[in-house]
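Repro:
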Amino acid sequence: MDQDLMLSLLQSKDTKQAYGTLLELERISGASDELYPYTAHFADMVNSDRYAVRVRGFRLFCKQARWDTEHVLDRHMADALVILNDEKPTAVRQALAALGDVVPYKRELWDMIWERARDIDCSRYPDTMQGLIAGDIQTLLDLME
């Protein structure tokens, strides 16, 4: 499938199709730098009004860390980390997990990631999610120790 078409499908309202596309793009990102030129685009997706688009963009943004020779993540990370304050607890959980793709390759971003993760107010989420988010935060922080 054409990359531009796949990128447009990330914003599809057909969630099954969009999720399948996300998984394929994550697979491609794990294997090669083919999608690296879209890193800034993925970061911009975090500003979407739609929760699922924000998450898809952030996940793909983080997947590019391995290939980031031009420091695109460094320039966009502060703005992209707004997702850690998302109203949707599942967005926060997926973002914390995605940051696990950044940690091995971008030590220079650890301080920013650490600070933003520690600043998450778990109490703003339903009781059933607070412990899960706290655990996700700790898992991420453990990766940076």
